[in-house]
Amino acid sequence: MKTRSKAIEETMEVSNELKSYLQEIIKPLATNKYIEDIVNKMKADIIQIFEDRFKEQEEKIISLESKVTVQDNVIKRLQIECDNNLQYSKRSCLRIHGIEVKDNESNKDMMDILKDCYESVEVDFNAVEIDRVHRIGKVFTEKDGRKTKQVIVKYNSWDARKKFYQSRPKFVTGNKKPRPFTVSVDLTKRRYNLLKTAKGIIESNPNMQYVFADINCSLGVKLKDQSFKFFTTEEELKMY
User: Fold this and answer.
1) Which residue, 83, 181, 182, 228, has fewest beta-carbon neighbours within 10 Å?
2) CA 46 to CA 144: how far, in whole Å?
3) What ranges make up the beta strands (E) of 18-112?
4) The pLDDT value given to residue 201
5) CA 41, CA 27: separation in Å to the nearest integer?
6) Distance of alpha carbon 91 from alpha carbon 33, whole angstroms
7) Mean pLDDT for the stretch of residues 36-59
């Protein structure tokens, strides 16, 4: 039978052997190279995980962007189609600008005002050609202090509209005498804003002379080579 001291001695020997064994296993962890290798591997693994995730998300984003682009093009096309339909409903109308507002105007007064406009450009007036005439928009204060408001005229025929539009007071370069009134086609809000934007674009484009809306309410630009181009979007205009 082992004595107590012998048993303790043997236990100590085993403990020392185990300690030495563990020291041999743990010893590599204490070297900088080993730790550096582990850290680098961890970094590489983590980076790879994130790169895989980023690539996956990037592919999804590209796919979504492609779908959004298609949808944007569809929306723009539908907006243009709706605008064309709305503009078509305005094809029989003209707007007269610069007509002074009178107190207590009636529908009869508006017809008389329109008749005066016809007489000023020496065009025969026929009330039968007019569907209706009335004020529209807000009141403007002219430089001379007069209060004016646009007059919109809806015609019963294209020929009647064309006759007055082509006889309207024209702008003459160098003529300081103000026109009694001006006439414009009745544009949709979208086309009006596009025409306004276009006027700003041509100021910085040496290839363009001026932009305009023709009698058919189409928007066009005259180029320096004397050619005319038509556009329905800002992007189309910038191509010229």
Assistant:
1) 228
2) 76
3) 93-97
4) 93
5) 20
6) 84
7) 77
In the numeric block, which tokens belong to residue 117?
């406009």
Q: Please report the sign of the dihedral spanned by the C-alpha atoms of residue 117, residue 119, residue 123, residue 124.
A: positive
User: Residue 128 half-sphere exposure, CB side, CA atoms within 13 Å?
Assistant: 1
Burial of 184 (0-12, 13-18, 19+ CB in 10 A): middle
CA distance 212 to 230: 9
What is the rounded distance in angstroms from the CA atom of residue 114 to the CA atom of residue 155? 12
Q: What is the mean pLDDT of the chain?
A: 86
Strand partners, 133: 153
pLDDT above 70 covers a percentage of the chain that reads 83
- Residue in the structure block whose two tokens are 């600008």: 97
- Predicted confidence band of residue 215 (pLDDT cuts 50, 70, 90): very high
Predicted TM-score (pTM) of this structure: 0.70
As given in the structure block, the two tokens for residue 155 are: 């015609």
Q: What angle do CA 77, 81, 85 make, to 5 degrees?
A: 170
Tokens of 115: 């008749």
- Two tokens, residue 173: 């370069």
Pick the closest to residue 118 from 102, 107, 105, 129 (CA basis).
129
On the question of pLDDT at 11 being above 60, the answer is: no
Torsion of CA 132, 137, 139, 142, to 10 degrees: -90
d(CA 57, CA 46): 16
Cα–Cα distance between 70 and 61 in angstroms, integer?
14
